[in-house]
Amino acid sequence: TQAPVTVTVTGAAGQIGYALLFRIASGQLIGPDTPIKLRLLEIPQAVKAAEGTAMELDDCAFPLLQSIDITDDARTAFDGTNVALLVGARPRTKGMERGDLLEANGGIFKPQGEAINAGAADDVRVLVVGNPANTNALIAQAHAPDVPAERFTAMTRLDHNRALSQLAQKLNVSITDIKKLTIWGNHSATQYPDLFHAEVGGKIAAEQVEQAWLSDEFIPTVAKRGAAIIEARGASSAASAANAAIDHVHTWVNGTPEGDWTSAAVVSDGSYGVPEGLISSFPVTARDGKFEIVQGLEIDEFSRERIDASVNELVEERDAVRKLGLI
Ligand code: NDP
């Protein structure tokens, strides 16, 4: 067997955490031969609930699970960690201004970035799930100057998976028939799911659907899926968010298949006019444990407008956290 991988999950007692931890412990995050050491970070009042989840993890007798540590201290949680899944965040509550939301999350992601900087393993990979995910990732990254910036990412894989599923149902094809789909921009209602580079059966997906379906149904359905789930389920999506987090890290570590790519919010190198340093969703491949932005795609006017709108929102969020002194 291989060397164990230490995985830290924040907000471990939350509903995404509950859907995530059992899959990590069963070997689905990295692979079936890699032992796992779990570190659970929670706020003090949720530590007891995390201990309950840990009891259930024990009761699964997962062969790969070597240890579970629970703490309310970020330094302890991230010491030596290889994979950090930042799930816990301050949700937007009724009447809350965006500035308040960003500030509350700054209070969470700044110390977590500092703790990662201080103690994480040299190969640490960070995935931010807690919203506003892209900007929370930017805050954490800004406080971890010794960690290569590209190790900080945010999750748009759930949006990607939602788009795959909507398109597969529309064209009555299987998920595996779809390649090269992209989510661009912010993990928010402005995100842009792009079918102009996606391929179904080797042909461009946008050409196989009506333009009206693409702009009036597909894009809003993908962007507003989170709200639709809350409406139907009476609670926000959790298992699908956890699944996407597993997919994101598994792809990052194990790579994308030849002839395909996926979506992840990664640090921009200035590609496609996205300001350098923003953490924005791009088409990415993964090779040798690294994400790379797919280069050279032609962006038509329809896509340009939508990518720019979402990227502009990220610029505004960045400027707002800058003004608050959070980055
Ligand atoms: P969830 O586990 O349901 O969600 C956690 C975060 O994931 C939220 O910020 C949520 O954002 C975000 N998220 C991203 N994508 C999705 C998606 N597709 N569907 C749903 N959520 C998504 O929240 P809970 O309230 O159940 O649990 C949060 C836990 O985090 C609590 O146990 C709390 O104590 C803990 N916490 C821990 C901290 C720490 O470890 N330092 C700090 C803050 C909280 P959104 O709300 O916008 O949907």
UniProtKB/TrEMBL annotation:
SUPFAM superfamilies: LDH C-terminal domain-like, NAD(P)-binding Rossmann-fold domains. Belongs to the LDH/MDH superfamily. MDH type 2 family. The keyword NAD applies. Residues 6-146 form the Lactate/malate dehydrogenase N-terminal domain. NCBIfam families: MalateDH-SF1, PRK05442.1. Residues 156-320 form the Lactate/malate dehydrogenase C-terminal domain. Catalyzes the reversible oxidation of malate to oxaloacetate. Substrate binds at R92, R98, N131, R162. Signal peptide: none annotated. One of its GO terms (biological process) is malate metabolic process. The keyword Acyltransferase does not apply. GO terms for molecular function: L-malate dehydrogenase (NAD+) activity. This is Malate dehydrogenase.
